[in-house]
């Protein structure tokens, strides 16, 4: 039985990692602030690793939030995200250097203007200003992984992750991932008996979406692989515009909602999708959850948590 420590186990991705790890029969330890571990505290982080001595750490701990939250408290967010990573690598180097660290890296770490996100280019340009409170720390993660491998032999397996959606996310629409936020707002619109739904922006930007459970599965089947300091995309090379997603949600809810746009919201880059060549080499048979299935499961989840 593999001894796995999930950091950020109470978060959106962390919960799915925990669920899959249970199915795989791992010996599990969980950590997050809600569970009494502030990993931004270096001593606390090191004590935890000393107690658990994990073979694998799946690192889903981060100070996240939507763009609105990031704009409200950018300094605090950046500082915590940098501390979480520095503390983790420092503690692993000192306490358990034989541990493998598996971690998602948000694709917001790509250059802000990259339409097709290809791994060799992921550090070839500045990140978008709107993601300054966390995206640069994902590049710090890469540097830490490389330096701690060179000095202490620590193994890291890093994955670049597209926009996630699915059950288990926050219920505050300003903090959740974009697709989940749209489902929440649409469910509330219908609940109020309104027939018009306003999309924030033109709805034209095309993004790649990935069901959160798929990301968790991939993280959990990759710890025994070779060191992967240079992150690989978890990718389908497939994008859908916000308008298409909105229409899919409306369809799933049985129709009867008219879509309009609030052009006061900025659109961001027109297209962002991830190249899948390296991913397909590593997981040639992986079948991603279809968008329709994923949206159906997400709607079911939010119906339960919002209106019970
Ligand atoms: N590109 C994407 O859309 C995408 C998608 C999925 C995941 N990711 C990456 O996956 C990671 C997790 O994202 P998420 O969406 O799951 O975030 P999330 O829902 O906000 O969860 C973050 C987790 O980190 C924990 N945490 C935060 N600060 C902590 C601290 N000081 N000490 C201990 N635990 C702390 C939180 O615990 P408490 O709530 O108990 O404080 C929570 O369990 C991030 O690195 C993110 O970039 C990216």
TrEMBL record:
<dbReference type="Pfam" id="PF01370">
    <property type="entry name" value="Epimerase"/>
</dbReference>
<protein>
    <submittedName>
        <fullName>dTDP-4-oxo-6-deoxy-D-allose reductase</fullName>
        <ecNumber>1.1.1.-</ecNumber>
    </submittedName>
</protein>
<dbReference type="GO" id="GO:0050577">
    <property type="term" value="F:GDP-L-fucose synthase activity"/>
</dbReference>
<dbReference type="InterPro" id="IPR001509">
    <property type="entry name" value="Epimerase_deHydtase"/>
</dbReference>
<feature type="domain" description="NAD-dependent epimerase/dehydratase">
    <location>
        <begin position="4"/>
        <end position="234"/>
    </location>
</feature>
<dbReference type="InterPro" id="IPR036291">
    <property type="entry name" value="NAD(P)-bd_dom_sf"/>
</dbReference>
<keyword id="KW-0560">Oxidoreductase</keyword>
């Amino acid at each position: 039985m593999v001894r796995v420590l999930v950091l950020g186990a109470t978060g959106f991705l962390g919960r799915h990692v925990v669920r899959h790890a249970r199915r795989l029969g791992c010996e599990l330890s969980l950590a997050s602030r809600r569970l009494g571990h502030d990993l931004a505290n270096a001593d606390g982080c090191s004590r935890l690793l000393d107690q658990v001595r994990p073979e694998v750490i799946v690192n889903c701990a981060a100070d996240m939030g939507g763009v609105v939250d990031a704009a409200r408290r950018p300094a605090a967010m950046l500082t915590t995200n940098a501390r979480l990573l520095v503390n983790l690598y420092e503690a692993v180097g000192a306490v358990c250097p034989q541990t493998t660290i598996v971690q998602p890296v948000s694709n917001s770490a790509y250059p802000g203007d990259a339409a097709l996100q290809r791994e060799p280019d992921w550090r070839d340009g500045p990140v978008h200003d709107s993601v300054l409170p966390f995206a640069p720390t994902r590049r710090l993660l890469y540097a830490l992984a490389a330096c701690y491998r060179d000095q202490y032999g620590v193994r890291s397996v890093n994955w670049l992750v597209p926009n996630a959606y699915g059950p288990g996310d926050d219920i505050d629409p300003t903090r959740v991932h974009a697709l989940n936020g749209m489902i929440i707002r649409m469910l509330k619109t219908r609940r109020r008996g309104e027939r018009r739904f306003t999309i924030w922006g033109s709805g034209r930007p095309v993004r790649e979406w990935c069901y959160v459970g798929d990301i968790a599965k991939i993280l959990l089947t990759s710890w025994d692989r070779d060191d992967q300091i240079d992150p690989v995309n978890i990718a389908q090379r497939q994008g859908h515009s916000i308008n298409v997603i909105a229409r899919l949600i409306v369809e799933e809810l049985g129709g009867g909602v008219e879509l309009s746009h609030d052009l006061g919201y900025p659109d961001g880059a027109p297209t962002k999708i991830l190249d899948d060549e390296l991913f397909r080499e590593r997981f040639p048979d992986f079948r991603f959850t279809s968008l329709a299935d994923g949206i159906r499961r997400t709607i079911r989840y939010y119906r339960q948590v919002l209106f019970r």
